[in-house]
Specification:
The chain has two helices and 20 strands. About 12% of the residues have low confidence. A hairpin with a 4-residue loop joins strand 2 and strand 3. It folds into two domains: 106 residues, Fimbrillin-like (Immunoglobulin-like, Sandwich), CATH 2.60.40.2620; 121 residues, Immunoglobulin-like, CATH 2.60.40.2630. The longest helix has 27 residues. It has a seven-stranded mixed sheet with strand order 1-9-8-5-2-3-4, with no helix packed on it. A four-stranded antiparallel sheet has the order 6-7-12-13, with no helix packed on it. It is mainly beta.
């Protein structure tokens, strides 16, 4: 009797092993629909450049850009082939994992941004059917905490490498200041009554446009000097490059007029009110200012 029980147990073990073997073998043979359409000989690769805005917010250019994130929309299926994929610069170029491949001659559209971990981006959404990327972004008003946010598109592509030209998304401001009546030391520069929240979207031709809401608040951007900077009778470039949300200045604004305020170490404030300004994406602006007691 004991021998028969052992035989039954052995048979059950053999049967169970057979079932597990069939299950694991059949599992290994499964493929997704996307995998079946991939050309395994043609990996998707990237070639990156940056525009020449000349930023010094964090001095991002192609030489020191280390990472970016990219999404790829597969037109025929209206699905993501990549979604927020991290891409890293290595000695071999731009790499990511797992490697993906071109789906035959089907078109793909790519949307990318850097830094890969953005402090200012609050929303990132892609309308797959219309190949439209929408980014909600808030610019930090403290010059010491700002990032050089950049975006890129490559639309309707069927082969690679995918060429991504990263564009500086913000406006860039620097200051050259002199004193007309003796030297003085300044401790702070402010751009007053500007907006810092906006929505960035791409256009079909690969450009990008900004929009602001009437409901978004007016704020002050600032450069604070740890040590006061001496200003003499010669123009001197002072402070960091300040990133500003692209926007048109409403000169008819009475409650919140745009101003430049400069404060010296004696707490005296110098008030300037430029007019006719439009802060454009990727453009650099230099304000040349003369301080005087009168």
């Amino acid at each position: 009797m004991e021998k028969n029980n052992k035989l039954k147990i052995c048979r059950w073990r053999s049967f169970l092993f057979f079932l597990l073997s069939v299950y694991f073998l059949s599992g290994c043979s499964q493929h997704t629909e996307i995998d079946d359409d991939m050309d395994q000989r043609n990996a998707i690769g990237f070639s990156c450049t940056t525009d020449d805005a000349g930023t010094r917010v964090s001095e991002t250019d192609i030489n020191n850009m280390e990472y970016f994130r990219v999404s790829a929309v597969w037109h025929r299926k209206d699905v993501f082939l990549m979604h927020n994929q991290l891409v890293e610069k290595t000695n071999n170029g731009w790499e990511y994992s797992p490697t993906l491949y071109w789906p035959g001659q089907d078109e793909l559209s790519f949307f990318a941004y850097t830094p890969a971990i953005s402090k200012g981006m609050t929303k990132y959404d892609i309308d797959k059917s219309n190949r439209k990327c929408t980014i909600e972004y808030t610019v930090d008003t403290d010059a010491d905490k700002q990032e050089d946010f950049m975006v890129a598109t490559a639309l309707d592509k069927t082969s690679g490498p995918v060429e991504l030209e990263f564009k500086h998304a913000l406006s860039l401001v620097n200051f050259e200041i002199q004193s007309s009546d003796g030297s003085r030391r300044i401790s702070k520069i402010q751009l007053v009554n500007l907006k810092n929240e906006g929505v960035l979207t791409n256009t079909p031709d690969g450009a990008w446009t900004w929009a602001t809401s009437d409901d978004s608040p007016y704020v002050s951007y600032s450069i604070d000097f740890k040590y006061p900077v001496e200003i003499t009778d010669t123009y001197k470039e002072v402070g960091k490059m300040l990133a500003v949300l692209p926007q048109a200045i409403d000169d008819s604004q009475i409650l919140y007029p745009f101003k430049i305020l400069i404060t010296d170490e004696a707490e005296k404030t110098y008030d300037f009110q430029p007019t006719g300004l439009i802060f454009q994406m990727g453009k650099r602006y230099t304000f040349k200012i003369t301080l005087s007691a009168t």
